[in-house]
Model the fold of this input.
Amino acid sequence: MNDEDLIQRNTELEWDKFVYSHPKGNIFQTLALYRVYQETKNYFPIKVAVLNSKQNEIRGVMTGVIVREIDGFLSDFSAHSIIQGGPLISSSSDEHVVAELIEKYDAIACNASLYTEIRNMYDTQGLFNHIGHYSKIDHLNFLINLNQSEDDLWNQIHRSTRRNINQAEKAGIRVEEITDRDQIPIFYSLLEDTYKNVKVPFADISLFESAFRQLVPKGLAKFFLTAHKDEYISANALLLFKDRIYDWYLGASVNERSYHPNAFLVWHILKWGIKNHYSIFDFGGAGNPNKPYGPREFKRRFGGEPVNYGWHTRPYSETKIKVAEIGFKVYQKLYR
Done:
């Protein structure tokens, strides 16, 4: 039996069992999210595995996704590959398996994307010693400890953010969990408003429709809205896996930010996480510390632990990347 045979015959049982039992296992390396990407417009997921040739046991797995952010004539110049939370290997003595996984992945991704980003979600020191072509860049994140009381967590939050949360509560902001898929277009429009405001391409609505349909019933995701009077003003999608909450997408109506709905929503989720015995709230990244990144200060003020696990990146075509950079500037001008 080769790798492809195992993936076809025992994928759901063996792959997800491996990811769940792995100390660094995370939602982004599950086949549940892989299937969500399969149903998402302009998303093309990839999965690779390395097996023990005698026992057919998994020695390492890795999933990623090629994303085409822009349709039309610029689509080829917007395609990039993202690997989040991987690779996962069976033991530290199997470091050479990392090179095998990445070699298999690159052989697929290089034909359809400009570059690959490995977005590390844990300390990968020594893990990439056996691979070439990839360079590491700094990338921050904030992790909030949920193994504490609400009062202790509240006292760790910056006083300006506490003030914003209190103001939102006084203004009558309320949080609603989405239980009906008919609300997904409302949810999507709020996030889309956020991304248009910063002139960044945004995922198709099919990503959230698929995630709501596939992940929510399995307890792997939750969707929230905040409302002021009769109007919805912010939205948040969470991914859930083992003892972790992942802040997946968060955004608010540009015209309603004076009510601080995002701060109020994050505080609501942190309290929910404590009550439901989660251990970590993962803020999902805070950018390169050497470059401006608007959301970083918002996230920092919740008092989480700053970490810098970094990203590993590999360009497949420097020429196309330069063209893509020009195309992105054109895109931003079109959406002024």
About this structure: The CA atoms of residues 146 and 273 lie 7 Å apart.
